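ARCHIVE CARD
SHELF: 3
SLOT: left
DATA:
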Amino acid sequence: MIKAEEFVEVARRLGFKRYTGVPCSFLTPFINYVINDDTLEYVSSANEGDALATAAGAVIGGERSVVMMQNSGLGNAVSPITSLAWVFRIPVLIISTHRGAPGVKDEPQHELMGKITGELFNTMQVPWETFPDEKKMIEPALERALNHMQKENRPYGFIMQKDTFAKHPLKKDSITRITNRVTQRKHFASKSNEGLTRSSVLRHIIHLTPESESVIIATTGYTGRELFALTDRANHLYMVGSMGCASSLGLGLALARPDLQVVIVDGDGAALMRMGNFSTIGTYGGSNLIHLVLDNEAHDSTGAQATVSANVQFADIAAACGYAVAYDGDDPGLIDELFSTGMVAGPKFGHLKIKTGTIENLPRPDVKPPEALRRLMKHIGTEF
């Protein structure tokens, strides 16, 4: 058994200061220590996949990051581990507990995952080892993890057994209370019945995002492809896979780099898939984060199958989650006002209705995901 500070302080010396996660009783002393320390950062995510993506965003912003979860939550994190961190080569340190470990009495829901936790890491090509439970083992274990992360630019895992940490009391609340925040709420109605195209909206956003001062994260599907087709800039990141994780990735980057304007261009299907992250952005996000959902009420790139977004008031949800600005409508004036609000108390949200359909002969980005990411990181000065 070790004390939480024995691990966290070695990790700090090696540059790990950003933590994200979803709690597990095995992790309680660890999380409590991080929360109690004002010089460390902890984001309490709605689910483990968003926690992984937020940690990945912080890495892009230049911060070595740790994501913590119960092994049952590995299921939620499979997509961002395999199609975000692996594909883009983003090195995050994953700490998973080992509930249901063979031979250890536990709740029935942990039985199968307890048997396959290590195999799941292996299948995802994430090298791992048992979390150190003696003080002398901590630094060598972290150095092995860091060496792999620096060499391969991919995740490394620790699997934590029961009773690894001694108790550590929680002394402060990690959550900033925003219940009194007044959201700027406005609807923008178009006088035209023509409807907006995705490409016209993206072209407008490009005009409003100076390359030297902003980053655009475009969700998977037609959004990233159309952004690339319109213009390929160093401040663009075209998401592939990890559907729904653009907003959590953008949150991590925005927290790590408050000097940059981070613009997340989401889709209705992606936003619905990871709607829990609205609450995390509302609590932790700053005024440098703009979250725009382009809503055509369809999964456009897979054949325009309908989503349920026609019945969802995204801006009301964003306002309820604490965004400082929440606009909706079908008029492009929404974009102009969203980008001109300046400094406000928190993140900004826009829900803009658009038409289905895309550019004729729409290309795919000819820059590979790792290359696009390295280009972006070089551009913002956080290259590995």
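SLOT: right
DATA:
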Amino acid sequence: MNFTSKTSRRDFLRQLSLITASAALSTLPISTLSAKKSNPRKIGTNDKVNLACIGIGNRGDEIIKKLYKTGHCNIVALCDTDMGAPHTLEIISAFPNIPRFQDFRKMFDKMANSIDAVVIGTPDFSHFPATMLSMSLGKHVYVEKPMAHTFREVELMMRAAKKHGVVTQMGNQGHSEANYFQFKAWKEAGIIKDVTAITAHMNNPRRWHKFDSNMKSMPAGESIPSTLDWDTWLGTEQFKNYNKDYINGQWRCWYDFGMGALGDWGAHIIDTAHEFLDLGLPTEINMMYAKGHNPFFFPYSSTINFKFPKRRDMPACDITWYDGIDNFPPVPAGYGNVELDPSIPPPSNGLIVPSKLNPGKIIYGKELTFKGGSHGSSLSIIPEEKAMEMQSKLPEVRLSPSNHFANFLLACKGLEKTRSPFEIAGPLSHVFCLGVIAQQLNTKLLFDRKTKQITNNKIANQLLIGAEPRKEWMYFYKL
């Protein structure tokens, strides 16, 4: 539900009554909403996890291959709303005799007893229903980042994971790589301390940069491909006519379907700082710059400042997020080179452009400054002279015992604990949800960490809940 003009704001307020039921639902105790609890099946340490795959093309294809490569799982079901598209045929060909479905609800109706865990590689807005149904049936869940599309959905997913006792993992795979273990070791050793500011940046071209910010409506309807179950693809979202610019990664462009650059790359850039500095939720979200702001898709460039309060012995800290090809952050003296880091995966729409900065972060402590990339890229102390001075004081950093995919499957068997479970990934995803609301309204938000409410803007506070789902999908908010 998007708006900028006074007229559209009035339209939004008139529609608040449509969301009343959803708003009331979010305030009820989870115990009054949930279906009967299902306990996960115990999996032997030498057994393989029976894995169902929801969303098998594009990123879903990549995740399935990496999970299967670990040797810890059997692929037992394939589900995608388009089983005849070029991007799904590779996985279908790789597992030709596996049962196939276009609707995950039908998959569980027929195969629930044969499934131990699911991997969900669908668009951001459709993570929630598949995840909630899976957990309610006692299935462990690996879901791509960000966890969900709205603040409330993330909150309900966190509660449900705790209630049903399932293993969960969000797909920010760098959280099982070098930066995770380095940041943890350096924080525990007092190398990273007294952090007061973090700059996070992703300045490469995005899909929506080709769109016209003066567009007056969402794209016109087109003929639905014969292989696509469009109604099921829409899921909780109110009905829209099909358009090719809604699918195959294009969904990331739109407020109705995706989470923009922040939701896409934030989980790979600020994840370790958010966890190990115990940042939690911000108290202010300031929209400092929004080039090409419009009601439908994300700005061409954004600068968003998040203010986090003092935590125990740690000082208040700001994270300032920069995205856009013309919106580079300032860098400190001694920052060094900006050559392409081969350990950073490219964006889904092409190669990283080694123009001025790799996607990454700058972490400012009172005594030391750190430079880092995204995903598993490790930190370095800058300037170089300071790094040389500190070299003998740096602690040993352990090697990762398992990558993110093996970590999830081993956790399903009780052999490890996941490194990005919903209890850790949820508050991080909440930060993205708050940032997206600030982008959508192009305004400053004041947030109460205790009540989890936006206190200075009624429309923004309603966006924590989001638009009412279609009637037939309300069930998933009660699990």
